[in-house]
Each structure stands twice: as C-alpha cells, then as structure tokens.
Amino acid sequence: MPFARPQTSHAIFIWLMIVAAMVSAMILIGGATRLTDSGLSITEWRPVTGAVPPLTEAGWQSELELYRSTTEYQLQNRGMSMEEFQFIYWWEWGHRFLGRMIGLVFAVPLVIFWVRGMIPGRLKTPLIVLLLLGGLQGAIGWWMVSSGLVDRLDVSQYRLATHLGMAFVILGLTIWLALEARYGVNSRSADRTAPWAAGFWALVFLQVILGAFVAGLDAGRIFTTWPLMEGRLIPDGYLGGMGWLQAAFESRPAVQLHHRWTAYLVTVCALLFAMALWRSRDSSLRAGAIWVGAATVFQVGLGIMTLVHAAPLSLSLLHQAGAIALFSIAAVLAWKTRRI
User: Fold this and answer.
1) Is the same domain home to 21 and 106?
2) Full domain range(s) for residue 158
3) Angle CA(249)–CA(252)–CA(258) in degrees, nearest 5?
4) Are 100 and 242 in a shared domain?
5) Apex 301 CA angle, 206 and 274, nearest 5
6) Which of 16, 214, 279, 306 could form a disulfide with 178 if both were Cys (CB 3.0 to 4.6 A apart)?
7) Domain check: are 235 and 336 in the same one?
8) Domain total of the chain
9) Judgement on whether residues 170 and 206 belong to the same structural domain of the protein
10) Residue 280 CB burial class (10 angstroms; 0-12, 13-18, ≥19)
C-alpha cells in the first residue's frame, strides 16, 4: 500500500519494523511452544542467568529433575527420555531467548536515538510505554507458566489469552509508531472509513483472543467437521454443565463454536470494509481493500483446514501466521485512514 512522502526518520521506521518482525516471530514460536507442550519444560524464571542453557550433562539432568516435579510430567510424560526432554526444552528456551533479544534490539537503539535527538517529541512517551509493556509481557509469560506447574496439565487458558493478547497489543503499537515515525502526522481530516478500520482492527483482535482460548483448551481437536459441528449447529455439550458465562471461556465446545461464528462475522465485516475502501479516492486505500479481503479469505480457509485436520502443528502455525498478517494489515489501515 503506497503512502505519502516521508516526513521524519527512516531509521526509526526500519528499527521499529525489525522489532515488529521479531515480535511476530516470537508469537509464532510461542504458538509452537504451546502446541508441542513445551511451555512447562523450564520451571524457573531467571531473567538474566536463564539466557544460558544447560552446558553439561549434569546441568541437563538438573533441569530434567525440576521438570519431573510438575504435574504434566507425572500424569502425561512420565518416563520421558533426556532426548525427548531436550526437544521440548529448546522450544521454551528459544521462546524466552528471543524475548530477551527483542528487549535488547528495542532498548539499545532507543537509547541511541534518544541521545542523538532523533526521536520526535510526540513519539517519546509512546516508546517508553512500549518498553514498559515489553517488560510487563515477560512477567505475564512467567505468570502464565507458573499456572501450569502444580495441579494442572496445561497453563491457564485465561493467562494464555492474556499473554497472547499483550503480544498483539505490542505488535500493533509497534507498527503504529513505525508508521508515525516514517510518515509523520498529516493535518488533513480522517477518511470516512476510519471508524470501519478501527472497528475491524478491534474485531480481529477479539478473534485472536478467542483463538487463544481454543488453543488453551485444545478445542481445535474436537468437532473436526465443517460447516456443522458433528451434524449440529449448536454442538452437544455446549454448556458442559456450566453457566453461560463460565462456559464461554471453559467449555471446549462453546469456545470452538464462538471462534467459528466470530470468524464468519470477521468475514462479513471484511467484505463490507473492503467495499468501503474500494470507493475511496485514495489509491492506497483501494489497494488496502484487496489486501484485507485476500488476507481474510486466506485466514478463514486456513482455519477450516486446520480444524478438519484436527489442528496439526504445521497448519496451526500457518493459521497463527495468518492471524498476524491480518492483524497487521488491519493496523496499517487503521493508521492510514486516520492520516489521509
């Protein structure tokens, strides 16, 4: 999507887009960590010393002994070999290590740009907020992991959704600030599609959160038929003996149903949004209509394929990548429609 002539720092734009790419990779690796049941393999939070993995046989044995104290090991992975443990350990270690690298890649250039006076005043506070959110995200990650160490086979789906939601908040804010740095603030009034863009962006975010509950409850591995759920519009066991509000977040059939129907809502809204963009006189917004339509169709198709194949790792990660792409496109359009 083409934009107007740049008004401020190209270097800051490149830096923030690198951070956004790293955050996207972090989300994908986090998804793989969850889908391979690797997230509980490291049972301690050591922000500094944890950057170094076990280097000796004794070190590996110590880590395995810590993992053996978890409920997941005792009920699901009892008898796991060292090689099997190392497989899940490296996923979780890689996820945490990339988080540390994102912190460095963000913080060090931030200090350099700040000292050199390259950061526009309007971006200083948002960048500090983004830095603080990154630190908070690390704490949320450990808070999530700690929920699965005792009396559970998996982490809390509520904490998983919080962790994923914060990752997407950080991604969206990073993209927004990158565009602000590169193209500046235009004083002209917002496009008439701006409310549509903001609403669509929010709806995609909601669908991401619902997807986190699907992943957290392994709800993508039941009712693997489409368009109906084993021949029914409302599946058997929808409430699961719970009240409606509790079932919305804890019943596997209910969580999957809501994710399905929100996908249909996203599709309808994407079509209407694309039609509104296509009528714009701005060529970049007309291009945006194609992007948002194609990304939505691709993502919904991936979702259906992932479901009917009972959520294998490869398709699940492609589906998560599709969510990142659609969310990022929505973020760009939300920014663009307010800066015509």
Assistant:
1) yes
2) 1-185
3) 65
4) no
5) 65
6) 16
7) yes
8) 2
9) no
10) middle
Are the C-beta atoms of 158 and 217 separated by less than 8 Å?
A: no
Per residue in 163-199, pLDDT (tens digit) is 999 999 999 999 999 999 988 765 456 788 999 999 9
CB 328 within 8 A of CB 1: no
Give every residue of the chain whose pLDDT is below 50, as ranges: 5-7, 187
Q: What is the pTM of this model?
A: 0.94
194 and 316 co-located in one domain: yes
Are 104 and 28 part of one and the same domain?
A: yes
By CB atoms closer than 10 A (0-12, 13-18, 19+), residue 325 is: middle
Of 149, 170, 185, the last residue of a domain is 185
Residue 131's nearest CA partner among 163, 108, 160 is 108
pLDDT at res. 3 = 53
Q: Specify the pLDDT at position 1.
A: 58
Structure tokens at 60: 């590996």
Model pLDDT, residue 2: 53
Among 157, 185, 213, the domain-final residue is 185
Note the pLDDT of residue 6. Answer: 46
Query: How far is C-alpha 84 from the geometric centre of its chain's CA atoms?
Result: 27
What is the model's pLDDT at position 48? 86
